[in-house]
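Recall that a protein's primary structure is simply its ordered list of amino acids. Everything else, from secondary elements to tertiary packing, is in principle encoded there. The following example makes that idea concrete.
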Amino acid sequence: MTRRDVFQAIADPIRREILDLLSQKNLSVNEVAEHFDITRQAVSKQLKILDECGLVNVTKQGRERYYSIEPKSLIPAFLWIEQYQKQWEERIDSFEDYLQQLKSKKNDR
């Protein structure tokens, strides 16, 4: 069995959408599947990957399995992204300053 991690899980757009849905409320496989144009089995596979990565919790109620998000498991990805966010904010701020300087020079003419 392949060991999966949070980065592999969030690399897929469908899994990110599933996490977004589950951040709003707990859902069964069928309820998740209603939001996608893929089969229930494909949704089950995506949920299984999210479960293997520890991003969702599964609770069995009768014959149904309900999925809920486990936000703490997203912390490693958040911390990794945050370091780049700071760098890009600094670069964007610097670029905005440069554009303001160009605009000021143009207005001075």
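The beta strands are 27-28, 56-61, 64-69. Residues 12 and 46 are 9 Å apart (CA to CA).
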